[in-house]
Amino acid sequence: MSVGIIGAGPSGLATSLFLDNEAEVLEKASHPGGHASSFKKGGFTFDLGPHIMFSKNKDIIKFMVDSLGDNIQQSRRNNKISYRSRLIKFPFENDLGSLPRDDIFFCLKHFVDNPYKTQYNNPKNLKEWFLKVFGKGICETYLFPYNEKIWNIPVEELSMVWADRIPNPDPDDVIKSAIGYETEGYLHQLYYHYPLRGGYQAISNAWSSGCNVTYNFNVVLVTIKDSGIEVTSDNGDKKLFSTLFSTAPVWELADIINVEVPKKVRAAIDGLICNPMYIVSLGIKGNDNNKFTAIYFPESDFRVNRISYPKTFSLYNAPDGYYSIQADITYLKSDPISNWSDDQILSHTIDGLVERGLIEHHAIVLTDVKRMPHSYVVYDINYENNITIIRNWFTSIGIHLVGRFSFFEYINVDGAVDRTIKIVTDFRNDGITGQELLNNALKIVEKAKAF
User: What is the C-alpha separation between 125 and 129, in angstroms, rounded?
Assistant: First the structure.
């Protein structure tokens, strides 16, 4: 059976490895990585949006770490939240004691005396779940404004799917944090790994060494034939496979397939929400004494939703005597910000960071703006119905969807590996376990790197 895979991002590469490298991966770029790629500019290394390695699944994180050999380091999270001219430790509910006194009382009172625990016993959307778990104070102070900012829809329109991703806070820890005790939340993220050299793309580089990848193959047509599935590149090259896995954005795949997409499926695809993102990268002269991992911004007047510090991830991401900051701005396609020039984006970002005392304008030595046409998969209340229709139809015509923008779920690379394991084990149907897939994949990578 010949297997083709569209896309050499982490999901496509993992699919190939889990198929024992018996597939051909077709990648339109000249390198692997997809949205988990990195780029270099002026001696600085940046990712296409910040990526770090952590997971609740110990087997998957071990596979990811081991595949990098000695090109890896572990660090402790140092995330902050910008709130009323002060920085609060992340997650918000574990540092209530750093808030202004009135806000401490507001958050703590409604956390302890929370009528929503019974009112929303069976929450129907993320707003109801937030209120039930955190209370009105924490929700109105941070959770509502930040989530509406990052997803760009009202919080009551967000699906309950998100609730599975957010740990329930320990009530004792929340109360302790309000009276000054040090507590930690989101413990699975407390320590993270990151490649020492090469940025996050080092993972895709390692995995691709064990895969059969054809680069500069931009698929523009997928043809379902009696003999198999034929893919055609923009320069006319054709390849025929008996089975096809695709990591291409599902709406793009629907536009290049030669069969008519049913109206119900087309409507479901049109109903998906995937927000674009600006990535603003800054090189800064000087030493970063704080070494924050990231800072989150819930305030609506500053369009940046998060900044990260690449040199905190690895010292090799910036030259000696310099550090860097990367800012994310997510937005709706219809938002006027979509028409901003690079200069407008840079000015808004830099002015906001200067105003908050996070950088000095004269220290900036490098700037870069990247425009990502799709980045944030949004779980709105119609998400589950829409994506079920889409996945079922593509499966019915013999195409397996894999990855963030094709299977369409908001996942980090560990989640992409986990999802790929499930998809490949179902496809192989030979009784192989997820652990065996990981072990075999690591052997393939280690053997390829040895040569």
Answer: 6
Other beta carbons less than 10 A from residue 357's beta carbon: 9
User: Which residues 6+ apart lie within 8 Å of 48 measured at CB?
Assistant: 33, 35, 36, 37, 38, 39, 279, 370, 372
pTM of the predicted structure, to 2 decimals: 0.95
d(CA 231, CA 37): 24
Cβ distance 268 to 390 under 8 Å? yes
Q: What is the DSSP string of 275-336?
A: EEEEEEEEEEES--SS--SEEE---TTS---EEE-HHHH-GGGS-TTEEEEEEEEE--TTSG
Q: Could you read off the pLDDT of 74-106 as tens digits, one per residue?
A: 999 999 999 998 999 999 999 999 999 999 999
Specify the 3-state DSSP secondary structure of 433: coil
Distance separating alpha carbons of residues 26 and 30, to the nearest angstrom? 10
For residue 67, the SS3 value is helix
| C-alpha Rg value of the chain to the nearest Å | 23
Residue pLDDT, tens place only, 233-289: 999 999 999 999 999 999 999 999 999 999 999 999 999 999 999 999 999 999 999
Specify the 3-state DSSP secondary structure of 229: strand
Q: Quote the CA–CA distance of 361 and 395 in Å, as a whole number.
A: 52
- What digits encode the pLDDT tens for the residues 170-220? 999 999 999 999 999 998 889 999 999 999 999 999 999 999 999 999 999
Long-range pairs, 353-362, Cβ under 8 A, ≥24: 353/304, 353/307, 353/325, 353/327, 356/82, 356/85, 356/302, 358/295, 358/307, 358/325, 359/282, 359/284, 359/325
Q: How many residues does the chain have?
A: 451
3-state secondary structure at position 113: coil
